[in-house]
Amino acid sequence: MERPQISLPLALLAVLLLASTTTTAESRLLHRIQHRGRFPVPAVSSVCRRAEFPRLCQSFVPDVRTVTAESMIEATVWAAVSGAKAAKALADALMDSPTTGSEVKGGIDVCRQNFDMLVLDLQKGLENIKGAGSHDELMSNLSAALSDIDSCDESFNEAPGLKSPVSHLTSNLRKLALNSLSLADHLN
Question: What are the record keywords, sorted (predicted)?
Answer without folding.
Answer: Signal
